[in-house]
Amino acid sequence: MPMDNTILFKKLATLPENLKAEVSDFIDFLLLKNEQSGSSKKPKFGSGKGMFKMKPGFNDPLEDFKDYMH
């Protein structure tokens, strides 16, 4: 059930100024938290497709390790 803004405004109007400032700070905190939660979503599998190109020979054995390879 959505909260009616009129009820919130009436409650806010009854608060002393110092508590109104705290409410304002808390609202700013909630807005920031909401923004950050949207940006921390896990990327979908394959969303980076086409962003990277591997150079030819990327999987070739490295010369530095030739003594360790069979």
**Class of secondary structure makeup:** mainly alpha
- Globally, the shape reads rod-shaped
User: Topology as H/E string?
Assistant: HH
Unreliable runs, pLDDT <50, ≥5 residues? Answer: none
Mean pLDDT: 87
Helix fraction bin: 40-55%
Radius of gyration: 28 Å
What is the end-to-end distance?
Answer: 68 Å
Describe the structure.
By secondary structure, the chain is mainly alpha-helical. The chain has two helices and no strands. The radius of gyration is 28 Å and the shape is rod-shaped. Helix content is 46%, strand content 0%.
Helices and strands in order, then pairings?
Elements: H1 5-13, H2 17-39
Task: Based on the model shown, name its key terms.
rod-shaped; about 70 residues; mainly alpha; about 45% helix; 2 helices
Summary of the model, kept short:
The protein has two helices and no strands. With 70 residues, the protein is mainly α. The model has no long low-confidence stretch (mean pLDDT 87).
